[in-house]
Amino acid sequence: MNIKLPPNYNSLAEALVSLYGNSVAIAETDRLHGGDINKAYGLTLNNGKKIFMKANAKQNASFFTAEAAGLTAIAKTGAIDTPDIICTGTDDGEDVGYSFLLLKFIKGGKQQKNYWQEFAQKLAAMHKADTSVFFENGGKFGFFQDNYIGARPQKNTPADSWVSFFRDNRLAPQFKAADAYFDTNDRKLVTKLLDHLEEFLIEPKKPSLLHGDLWSGNVMCGLDGHAMLIDPACYVGHAEADLAMTELFGGFPPEFYEAYREANPLQPGYENRRDLYNLYQLLNHLNLFGPTYLGPVKSIIAEYVG
Prior knowledge:
Layout: E1 8-9, H1 12-20, E2 26-32, E3 39-45, E4 50-57, H2 61-77, E5 85-91, E6 98-104, H3 115-128, E7 147-149, E8 152-154, H4 162-177, H5 184-195, E9 208-210, E10 219-221, E11 227-229, E12 235-237, H6 239-246, H7 254-263, H8 270-289, H9 294-305
Parallel strand pairs: 1-5
Antiparallel strand pairs: 2-3, 3-4, 4-6, 5-6, 7-8, 9-12, 10-11
Helix pairs in contact: 3-7, 4-8, 5-9, 6-8, 8-9
């Protein structure tokens, strides 16, 4: 595996001194809004440099090492921008311990002309990039470590089949976590769906590195007017799964999809598979946020095996 992860430090002070020198100190801390899992801050240093910090409880340090791994993987493809990673770490703090992720501070900008078309082309290029570098001991689908989808763990155990990966690492764990929401008939349909998944999904022409949580909130426009990806839940899978996610909560403009299909033509029948990919995301929302998402989950199950 040819992936170099960012440094990890035992305190924020250690990180700042190691990166910026003994005289560095935090001159100003601004609490930033956005996100429902982590706290976010803009840190202005006494040398004038401004950096972005995410923080969470110390026991959740793996949130940030996983995010750093995903951002590193996306950057490795050379296809699309992500925020520069500075480091990860933990700190005992004065009152309570915390974990942190430091990133280059990104100011939002105005979308350049053809913003969505260019974003689609760059996403397609990421999906076509070599994925062998993301595995240590073989495997075509998965990732070199587990990570998170939102606040929930996401299994990435490598597999040689996309269909078996999606069954064993995506749908099955979510169905197991959501079992209390289902009655006996529902469980029979779930079993039928998992047992016959190869009738509905197909293997990709080639594996793709996926963002994994690709909705509009995880795409931002940088100061230069170009799109960049943030907050990934990366793994290697079928590019269709990323594209399906973009359509789940409102979708992107039509010009995005036109440009993507031109740059990376879809295999026939994508529209018949789209809801099945998004079943994973809806199950995750069901397990995170409760029964509001039960209706859409049952509707998709019935669509395929009802």
